[in-house]
Specification:
The complex is a heterotrimer of chains A (about 325), B (about 250) and C (about 375). In chain A, α2 (about 40-55) packs parallel to α4 (about 110-130), α2 (about 40-55) crosses α8 (about 210-235) and α9 packs parallel to α11 (about 285-300). Chain A has about 325 residues and is mostly helical. Chain A is built from eleven helices and two strands. Chain B folds into two domains: about 1-80 and about 170-255, P-loop containing nucleotide triphosphate hydrolases (Rossmann fold); about 85-165, no CATH class. The longest helix of chain B has 16 residues, at about 180-195. Classes of the chains: A mainly alpha (about 325), B alpha/beta (about 250), C mainly alpha (about 375). Chains in contact: A-C, B-C. The interface between A and C is large, with 50 and 46 residues.
């Protein structure tokens, strides 16, 4: 394989992995720390995509909003990229207080079922408001096309390393490093880690486990919202994308091992690699690839790649 | 040959040693008690013997069979019964059904393909269930949901489930915790019946020292994972190490 | 409980139609069997000439048959979730695989409705064995999601790589042939039989429906019914009384797969078609909604849930203003049921009839439920 081929291959793998990772991170931390499984996390991705759309452009939608003519602020892509995560951060706080918190003491199955119901309901609401046909993001000039990397120029195989994909990978790298830094170097991060290990002890020691966990929930939500904007600009935007992204994200979190952020990252990278390999070798298997990977991994290691000692049963 | 024997039983969790070189022998028909301060390793010992945990080192023999490596349900089928410290019952089933489950296990083994037979047609199970209900004095509440029972009754049901497995050796983990004096007396009487009439061997973990000294044939004392004393109630009462670790410190019943 | 006992109690008791007698009777197997036969007889007719939206349903009668088949699906799913407490988000794998197996057998080997349905069922069982070996080692949530992963894998497999066999998104067509070579399934009846049962296909499906209801009732009343519930309530304790929990879970899984496979095979015969949609996550999601909405853990619950779901999908969908909201309404109802009313629609009905008899008991029960919903822990 030539250099361009390899680079192209890597970028496909990394950009796929990145998008899943941005969504999976929030899921993984909440599942690991709060012992709360949240399918409604997909709502945050969905909301991110549509709110980003509303900020970035002004369009005629179907559905109920169609009656209002052109809807949207039309401020452009970058404002959407910056503002949407903020909005979703707030939405995350609302979700934690009203949806998640009542279910912390309840069965994991109930959590799965309720959050599933909320995701479906949210998708329907979006479909009713915006209509059932999809839309696409208006992409700014500087974001289309491909990047030319030093020493390689812009050879043919590089169309896969399109600018938008580079942006996705770069942003994800930064944000993941930020999360790791949060856990390692901040007080809140320490509180979350302590709270994960033993929430009773943390409470007794006076660490108010409430606020750090709320923060981490909201941050994870914001990441998912950002992923919605990025994913929305890579693919098209329909009411079903919440479920479409949450299934592989859940699979990745579980494959990596619940409670292990490292596992989630490794899981996402593996998924991206598998996807890119399938695109090269057996194109018809690309969409099936991540599921095959997960099935094989979990058959060999039923607790995931990096199992933690305790999974909130 | 002792009914139950552990040799050099050791259990480590990462860096923590929960049990260290524990040697215990229980003869058939006797009632032994295990005492020790909180965190001494009493629950760990029971969990290791009954198969929930696997020992780091050492052996466990029951009626000559090596239990190490066996699964909990296999050990239970050999005749080792257990009642738990917390009322580990089946909440949404009735009292009768709770006992029936255990009775089926005793009656037809760990697994049967009998999903086409009506459960009322198993006479032996019905008989045994009724017998246990009467012994434990819950037959007036047999058709109530287990979760609606008051706490003391739940503990009694817990013991009943252990009994219904028809064990030869019964582990009772703090059976009187949280019971009223009347209920406690009932449980102690029950234990007496189990020994005398049912010919059971009993391994009792208890914090209530009055009961322990009253019913036990022998007592083992565990402290920080090690067996520090064994003997008759009289011997234990006088034992210096026991007094220091446990009784003397004011950490009594 | 035999007819003799009922006769005796009726003779000796002055209040013949007491509620207690009713309580006993309604749980007997004979009653359940007869009710289900009656249900099948009256269902299609009582459904009425309602306006039905989608061509897929081919009129109210088609919808009635669809509902019966999906009820079988729901009953099989409930065996795993309601009874044993195992939530699989990928049960479409059995529905879809059985459908394909039935169609492929009909096309490439031999086409006869009964045989084809049997083949579908067996294919689902075979898949169930493989899936169980993977899934039963996993913790609760892992189990649910990996089940979904397996189903999605099969979906994408059927769509592209195996397109030669499955014809991808176009699907496979199954010819309608006579049952056992002699009975025309499309043959319509006249008169009373025609009004109630319409055609032989309905009878074919109805017989399977009654059979499944009878099977599940028997399972519930066998030791398995007890043990499945015990596993759901407290798996550790169940193991400690000496039961091989893994093997019982395996049994529940296989039984569930078989029943769902039966539904898949019937669907292929009914619609004369087998396609990828039957493997898609929305099928798995739909069955979860139907079963939970109707009421887990009961026999009537899943059937009622299925009915409500398809009523909304096929009929409410066509209402002028409300129509667009049918799935939203269902999703919200489903969420509400999981949140506060786990007994579902059937639970609401039984609580209502119980309230008519004993209002105080209902209030007590409601109080207990509300108390259990208040989170016990403080701030996390």
């Amino acid at each position: 394989m030539s250099i361009d081929g390899i680079v192209g291959f890597l970028f496909i793998a990394l950009s796929v992995a990145s998008l899943y990772l941005l969504v999976a991170v929030g899921l993984s931390i909440v599942f690991g720390s709060l012992k709360y499984v949240n399918m409604a996390h997909g709502v945050l991705y969905l909301a991110g995509a549509y709110i980003g759309l509303l900020i970035a452009s002004s369009e005629q939608y179907g559905g109920l909003l169609g009656e209002a003519g052109q809807v949207g602020l039309g401020w452009g892509f970058v404002p959407a990229l910056i503002l949407t995560p903020v909005v979703i951060f707030v939405l995350g706080i609302v979700m934690e207080r009203f949806v998640a918190k009542p279910f912390y003491e309840r069965d994991l199955l109930d959590q799965l079922l309720v959050t599933f119901g909320i995701l479906i309901a949210a998708q329907e609401l979006v479909a009713i408001l915006f209509g059932r046909t999809g839309t696409i993001y208006p992409r700014p000039e500087w974001l289309t096309g491909a990047i030319s990397l030093p020493a390689i120029g812009t050879p043919p195989g590089m169309s896969a390393a399109s600018t938008i994909r580079v942006l996705v990978v770069a942003l994800t790298l930064l944000l993941i490093l930020a999360i790791f830094a949060f856990f390692k170097y901040t007080d809140y991060g320490l509180a979350v880690r302590a709270g994960t290990e033993d929430s009773e002890m943390a409470q007794m020691l006076g660490i108010r486990v409430g606020r750090p966990f709320l923060l981490i929930f909201a941050v994870g939500s914001a990441y998912a919202g950002l992923a919605g904007v990025l994913g929305g600009s890579l693919f098209n935007v329909t009411s079903g994308i919440g479920m479409e992204i949450i299934i592989p994200s859940l699979v990745i979190v579980i494959m990596g091992g619940v409670g292990s952020l490292r596992g989630t990252v490794v899981g996402a990278l593996l998924a991206g690699l598998f996807f890119a390999t399938a695109t090269e070798l057996v194109p018809s298997m690309t969409r099936a690839s991540i599921y095959l990977l997960a099935i094989v991994v979990l058959t060999l290691r039923p607790n995931g790649i990096y199992p933690s000692t305790e999974i909130g049963q | 040959m002792a009914l139950l024997e552990t040799r050099g039983l050791t259990k480590e969790f990462g860096g923590l040693t929960a049990l260290s070189d524990v040697d215990i022998a229980v003869e058939e028909g006797e009632l032994v008690s295990l005492i020790g301060p909180n965190g001494a390793g009493k629950s760990t010992l029971i969990n290791t013997i009954t198969g929930q945990l696997s020992p780091t080192e050492g052996d466990v023999y029951y009626a000559g069979t090596d239990l190490v490596g066996m699964k909990p349900f296999e050990i239970a089928q050999l005749g080792v019964g257990r009642s738990f410290q917390t009322a580990s019952i089946l909440p949404e089933l009735t009292v009768r059904e709770n006992i029936q489950v255990a009775s089926f296990a005793a009656e037809h083994g760990s697994f049967r393909v009998n999903f086409l037979r009506h459960r009322d047609s198993f006479d032996a199970v019905q008989e045994q269930t009724n017998e246990i209900l009467q012994t434990i004095d819950l037959d007036s509440k047999a058709d109530m949901d287990a979760q609606s029972l008051p706490y003391g009754d739940k503990r009694r049901l817990e013991v009943a489930i252990g009994l219904a497995t028809d064990p030869d050796l019964l582990f009772m983990d703090e059976p009187t915790a949280g019971m009223s004096p009347t209920e406690t007396k009932m449980t102690v009487d029950l234990i007496g019946d189990l020994l005398a009439e049912w010919g059971m061997t009993i391994f009792l973990v208890e914090h209530d020292m009055d009961i322990v000294f009253d019913v036990s044939d022998r007592i083992f004392t565990l402290h920080q994972g090690q067996l520090i004393a064994r003997g008759t109630p009289v011997e234990i009462r006088e034992h210096p190490a026991v007094r220091e670790a446990y009784l003397g410190g004011g950490d009594g019943a | 409980m035999s007819m003799d006992t009922i006769r005796n109690s009726v003779a000796g008791d002055s209040s013949v139609l007491s509620w207690e007698t009713w309580n006993r009777i309604k749980h007997t197997e004979r009653f359940v069997f007869l009710s289900s036969v009656l249900f099948v007889l009256l269902f299609s007719y009582a459904f009425g000439r309602a306006p039905v939206i989608s061509d897929v349903f081919k009129g109210y009668h088609g919808l009635a048959m669809t509902i019966l088949i999906w009820s079988i699906f729901a009953l099989g799913f409930n065996l795993l979730l309601g009874q044993t407490g195992l939530l699989s988000f990928g049960h479409a794998m059995f529905f879809g695989t059985a459908s394909y197996a039935a169609a492929l057998f009909a096309i490439h080997v031999y086409n006869e409705p009964l045989l084809v349905v049997l083949v579908g069922t067996l294919a689902a069982v075979a898949l169930g064995v493989v899936a169980a070996l993977i899934l039963l080692r996993l913790h609760t949530v892992y189990f649910s999601i990996v089940a979904l992963a397996i189903a999605q894998f099969l979906y994408f497999l059927a769509r592209e790589p195996l397109v030669e066999i499955t014809k991808g998104i176009n699907g496979l067509d199954v010819k309608r042939v006579p049952l056992l070579g002699i009975v025309e399934l499309d043959h319509e009846y006249s008169g009373l039989v025609g009004a109630l049962l319409v055609n032989n296909l309905y009878i074919f499906i109805g017989v399977f429906f009654v059979a499944v209801v009878a099977l599940i009732t028997r399972i519930r009343k066998s030791p398995y019914g007890l043990i499945f519930k015990a596993i759901r309530e407290n798996e550790t304790r169940t193991a400690f009384v000496g039961l091989d929990v893994w093997r019982y879970k395996f049994a529940a899984f296989i039984l569930s797969a078989a029943i769902v496979g039966l539904a898949g095979g019937l669907m292929a015969v009914n619609t004369q078609f087998a396609g990828v949609e039957r493997l898609y996550w929305s099928v798995s999601g739909d069955i979860v909604v139907m079963t939970v909405l109707g009421g887990l853990g009961s026999l009537a619950g899943p059937v009622i849930g299925t009915f409500v779901f398809f009523y909304f999908k096929g009929i409410v969908n066509g209402f002028p203003t409300l129509g667009n909201y049918w799935l939203l309404l269902l999703a919200l109802s489903f969420t509400a049921v999981v949140w506060v009313y786990p007994d579902g629609i059937w639970g609401m009905l039984t609580d209502f009839t119980a309230a008519l008899r004993d209002p105080k008991g209902l209030v007590a029960k409601a109080k207990r439920r509300l108390a259990s919903l208040v989170p016990t822990g403080g701030d996390r």
